[in-house]
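To: structure subgroup
Subject: Chain for Friday's discussion

All,

I'm putting the inputs and outputs inline so they're searchable in the archive.
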Amino acid sequence: MQIIRDTSDIVPEMCVAAIGFFDGVHLGHRYLIQQVKEIAAARGLRSALITFPVHPRKVMCTDYRPELLTTFEEKTALLSDMEIDYCLMVDFTLEISQLSAEEFMRSVLKDRFRVKCLVIGYDHRFGHNRSEGFAEYVKYGQAMDMEIVHALAYTERQLSQNGETVTISSSLIRRLLWQGNVSTAADCLGYFYFLEGKVVNGYHVGRKIGFPTANLSVNSPDKLIPQNGVYAVLVTIDGKEYMGMLNIGVRPTVNNGVNRTIEVHILHFDADIYGKSIRLTFVERIRPELRFSSLQALTDELQKDAETVERILTSRTEK
């Protein structure tokens, strides 16, 4: 996949494209991308995705924190796996935000990126205030010799929540992660949610009670952190995978205040990894974070949690 982002770069060949932020590159996105590839193959054109390195809303409101499912680097890596020809990056600006849909289609899609066919997601809108829709896109496309195709909605996998059937979206996945429901989030993403960062110094309380932990400083402040609680995770260090028991929270038993930490106890592991980059892959939530009456009560519970985590992760690898 060739990434084109400089304004002086012109796409060398006409293409079939879809536009979106593609946060998480979830199953709904993948279904849309597959349609782009199939249409491009049928038309004898290149396939392309048009996206943004920074969330557009963050450009419009500098103090907005998007809580992303994927960082820019993570998103482009996932998109690369989709075998798209081009990833076309638009540096969203206040000037671009003022363009109408017709102006954006002509100046950015047609003139700069040579889009011959635009595949519109089933619920996607663009242009100033998103005031126009598919019918207008078709009309503008006809005037500039650009075919507009309405993508099929992803309906093969749907979830029932509170008796309602909902379609997979980035917003739904965020809600699931905020609830700690990492297993259902994985069903929507098509992969297990993960955090990446560096191991930093912590409070060393875990080591004193027999459960030393590695404290994670997440690479991006915009990355969504799941609900507080204890999780079964896989820990990747230098390309090797280990089983881990992760706690996200404020450690109420030791009166940590409001300082939220991400600390993982790596099972059957004893090495100095301070400063190393690691990945935490969420498999299942074990329980919420709790306040215990004493450190001994906490230690007893952690022993049970560790056994649960090992059972879950071992059974997963044996399948």
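Points worth raising on Friday:
The CA atoms of residues 160 and 176 lie 12 Å apart.
The first helix runs from residue 27 to 43.

D.
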